[in-house]
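Model: Ready when you are.
Researcher: Fold this.
Model:
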Amino acid sequence: MAVTDGVRKIAGLDFASVTPEEFARLVKKLSDKEIAAIARDGALRPRVLREVFGRVERQFRPDAAGSLKALIRWRITGSGDNEDAVYETAIADGACAVREGRSDADPRLTLVLADPEFLKLVSGNVGPVKLFMLRKVKIVGDVALAACLTRYFDIPKA
């Protein structure tokens, strides 16, 4: 597949200078094929995932989470030679912490989805309920938590 302008823009992105809203607009313009091309790139995919998860703690809304205590495991399914990427988001005591990889702890919620759906979800371009209805996300555990997960974070709108 030829590299498109959308893929080139993401590859050349200085994530430190891009707001979540700008990132959301970039993702909105990408086709599923372009996101799949990013997902197959062994250097670009981890860079994008690290940046997205690196922003989660800053976008956390402790006021909305209240006394919520939950470990959320994200498994972004790999394609091509790339393995699944696993991240965990721990919410407790009004704080949010993210770690790469799978811990031995039992998550309250596990979300399994492909790269296009993941990027669309975290950029505010699709909601979790719609993904579930379209069978684009597998939910294991607390379905109610999954349905309201986005309210605990400042999700940009493209």
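Researcher: Now this one.
Model:
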Amino acid sequence: MAATQTTGGIASPRSPYARRTTTRGNYELYSWVFMRASGVLLLVLIFGHLFVNLMVGEGVKAIDFAFVGGKWSSPFWQVWDLLMLWLAMFHGTNGVRTIINDYAQRDATRGILKALLYLAFTVVVVLGTLVIFTFDPCPANAPADLLPSICSAS
């Protein structure tokens, strides 16, 4: 009697289990662990962000262009917001990738959806990073009537 008996290409239910070999390695395991770790770190980053923006100082009434300009003039807050952006985008993209893998039945559909997802991820991360690091509330040679009150008139 053979180790695995097949009937029409389907293995017999009583045949020994043969582990399938995959070329993906432990990618899905690492993805699962990343989701848990990034979720915890995102909680810290988001609640820290909310606490500073809503509880410290005058609260939500103080949030305006000058508040953001003053906050992003500090490298600490630039890195904080950058980490929050990148982690949120990686976390969300990984979650949507998992949903696409679970529910898209055809390979072509799955490929198109993932390509659109990765394109959206790239655009948001690149533009968000550029905004955080190139934001200047007081651009040189700007008309004085267009500058916010935090800029010194020179």
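Researcher: Key takeaway?
Model: Helices lie at 27-55, 65-71, 75-103, 107-134.
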